[in-house]
Each structure stands twice: as C-alpha cells, then as structure tokens.
Design brief:
The protein is 40% helix and 16% strand. By secondary structure, the protein is an alpha+beta fold.
Length: 316
C-alpha cells in the first residue's frame, strides 16, 4: 500500500499534549501507535482489541496516569540504557525530538510511533527492561511494535536493547520484511475502517467493562427480542453457580480448619498437602477516621457511579 511519512515535534513524553497527539491526527481522525499495535492483532496482554477500539471511539483523549512500577523503571533507566547500548554496540544513537507518522495515500491508515532512539542511517532503536530472562525471541507484543516502528520510520529493521532479569543488556536485530509491513497495514486499515464508522470491530471480544463504557445510562427502555430470555437465564444460572461455589468453598475451609486443630501444616502419609499459616495486612480504618475527623474525611471522599444488572421476574 502506498503512503507518505512525516514527522512533527514531540510534546513532552507522557503529557496531555503527547497523549492527544497520539490519539487523533491533525484532522481529528483516530490513529494507531506502535505501543498498542499488537492489540490490533489480539496480541497485547495489557490491552484487548476491544479496549483499543473503545479508547479510539471515546469523546476525549486518554489522560495522564500515575506511572506504575514497570513504567517508572523504564522511564528512569531508558536514557542510561540507550547510552550503554550505543557504547556496547559501537553505534551512534540519538533520542528523536519528533514523532514519526505514516498515512496511506487514501488516509484510511494512520500510524504513529514514538522512538526511543534512532541511528544516523534511520534505524529505530527500542529499549526494553524486563523482569524475565531474555530468550532471544521477541514476544508478539514487541514484534508488532517493531513492525509498526519500521513502517513509520521507513526502515527494514529495528534494533532492540533488552535489559533483562540477569541485569544484562542484550542486542536483538529485528528484520522487517515488506510482507510483514503490508500485513500490519492491512490489519490496521480494517480496524480503523470500523473506528471511522463509529463501530467496534466485530472480531473484538467485548468485556462487560467495555460495554458499560460504550453504553452510558440514558434512563430509557430497550425492547429486547424474545430469544434474549436465554441470555437472562444464563446470567441467573451463572450467579447461582457462583453462590454455590462460595458455599462449597466455605464448607471445605471449615472442615480443613477443624481437622488441623490450629496446626500450620497438614500432611497425608507424611506428604504436606495443606497449610494454614498466619498472615498480616494493614488496612485503613475508614469508619473510625470518618467518626473522629468528619470534616477532613469529607475532603477525601470520592464518589463513583456504577450500574448493576439485575434480572426481574418474567410473566410465563
């Protein structure tokens, strides 16, 4: 597929401006970034295809979130690892001050990439920190991110610097073929085709959370087909089974506790089969705090809205 590439100044990483630029292009059309590219193929363990669709269909751009431990680790170590990687591999790597975009000629495909680094000859460099040991093979999430970056940077490869659980920095060269690029572009075109129509792609497995976000309360009544009774009965059966499972668990735990007679460990024929050890946890006493400091507590009370599906009795 033919297309064109362009770059524009990168806003401060993680800022609202940066998130907005990644979410929609200059014309207000949704685009896909490298970090979520695998979600298009259903290969992102942290974001489903439906999650990505809901994010792009939302009325407002994502907002900055507090960095979790993995994000904080990457943000802190990335500059150091880029310098180390460049010295270790004897290559020059600079941190781009621009974002890299690719659009198809018909504007049906809109891709964007934030590169950790780039070599003088235009090869993207991606730095990763991992709690796992490097096996020499890119996981699917990273693979599709690399394909996406190669498209946006017009490169046939991506250089990876992977700092793993052994505290070693590994180099991996990902060769990206034209077929791989075309496969990803075609998948993105199909995905964005539905987004542009305001639809969730039919292959996206919706979750209850996705459905709740996509369908806010409007205080009206929807007429459901008679066949939908089966779905309602399914929900009722699931809730009954859940209640029964909780009761069975409670019964089993009670019998085990009585049999152990206060012992931390239980064994059968000398083999340890169960433990019942003391654990401690700290929790905030909200009730006491509200009682002793009502005015202060009021300042920190946050109300959230939620909806609960309840079935009602049906006429036979």
């Amino acid at each position: 597929m033919n297309g064109y590439r362009y770059t524009f100044k990168k806003p401060t990483h993680g800022s609202q401006e940066w998130l907005t630029a990644r979410w929609k292009d200059e014309d207000g059309s949704a685009r896909i970034t490298a970090s979520v590219a695998a979600a298009v193929h259903g290969k992102n363990p942290y974001m489903t295809t439906a999650d990505l669709a809901i994010e792009l269909l939302a009325e407002n751009a994502p907002t900055p979130k507090e960095a979790n431990m993995a994000m904080e680790r990457g943000n802190r170590l990335e500059p150091v690892l880029i310098e180390w990687f460049a010295d270790l591999e004897h290559i020059e790597v600079s941190t781009p001050k621009v974002l890299y975009a690719f659009n198809s000629d018909d504007n049906r495909v809109r891709l964007l990439a934030t590169l950790d680094g780039i070599t003088p000859d235009g090869i993207p460099v991606e730095i990763k920190t991992s709690k796992k040991m490097w096996t020499g093979s890119l996981p699917p999430m990273w693979y599709w991110q690399g394909v996406h970056q190669a498209i946006c940077a017009d490169s046939d490869r991506v250089e990876w610097g992977i700092f793993d659980s052994n505290l070693e920095l590994h180099r991996h060269t990902q060769i990206v073929t034209s077929d791989e690029k075309q496969n990803h572009i075609a998948a993105c075109q199909e995905f964005l085709g539905y987004i542009d129509k305001g639809l969730v792609p039919p292959n996206a497995q919706m979750s209850y959370e996705n459905a709740s976000y996509l369908n806010p309360s409007n205080s009206s009544t929807a007429e459901l087909p008679e066949s939908f009774v089966e779905v309602l009965e399914l929900l009722e059966r699931a809730r009954t089974l859940k209640s029964e499972a909780v009761a069975l668990e409670e019964q089993a735990k009670t019998e085990i506790a009585m049999a152990l007679k206060g012992c931390d460990v239980g064994s059968i024929n000398g083999d340890k089969v169960v433990t019942w050890k003391v654990s401690k946890k700290s929790s905030f006493d909200t009730t006491r705090f509200q009682s002793e400091h009502p005015a202060l507590a009021e300042k920190y009370v946050r109300q959230t809205e939620y909806r609960t599906i309840r079935t009602t009795k049906r006429s036979k």
